[in-house]
Amino acid sequence: MADRTILLGTDWWTDCDDIAAVRIACRAHRKGLWNLAGVVIDACMEYSAASLSAFMTAEGCGNIPVALDRAGTDFTGNLSPYQKHLTVRWPHRIASNDDAEEPLPMLRRILSAAEDEKVEFIEIGFPQVWAALLRDPEGMDLVQRKVKKMWMMAGRFDENGAGIEHNIANNARSREAAAYLFAHFPKPITFLGWEIGHDVISGGDPDNGGDPLVQAFRDHGSPNGRSSWDPMTILLALADDPARAGYSLRRGHVSADPVTGENRTISDPDGPHAYVVREKPVAWYEAELARWLK
Ligand SMILES: [Ca+2]
Hints:
9-stranded mixed β-sheet, alpha/beta, binds calcium ion
């Protein structure tokens, strides 16, 4: 059994780079590099749970628990048909959103069963479920004991560690949750910001129409690939060594403004937070991603 236990949060929703991220997370699980113990969907549309189940089944990970924040219907974005098409073409254990678990009971159960300091959170969507876990006394106790660190695709850091980015700033709930999470999460957080992934393009083999990832990217209107924020966050977490993943770190204290959603960073070499800075050319990251996605 792998020594690392991963809980992944995703806004499995309008964008398609979450699909590339889930593929890498599942393939790393199947290689025994980590134990993907559960996935939380933090933005809810009609086919969210069923389409994630269909994709994870196609990746050989259909039995991994999936939870859904049923209240996560209030984010803004452009609808894409990829979710419904996944459920039409691929079998899925979870038939509908009603069959997905509630996030907090699932997280408490998996954390309770885990060894101390072995669990890592990865978030590639909105942060409200993690903030709710910290506001829950049992949840906070479990995070203190069981969790080692968190990896997040969130924020923008190219203006001296400050900026405004979708996963934090989308609406009042994401802004308030990010502010609470950054202020109260009791373990280190490593951020991958908007500026890291926007010009790094990844996807499947565009000629492989039988691949559910390729179909979903086509449905999204990205047949030749998409910005790589989410799959780069998975590869950063998987390497567990920023230098090996092609980055240097800037340490400090990251905060989010609960009203505007702006993130800011106060530099501190001993701070609990860090954001990554690219140290390789774009083509280097694209080659790493292609190795996992094709
Ligand atoms: Ca995402």
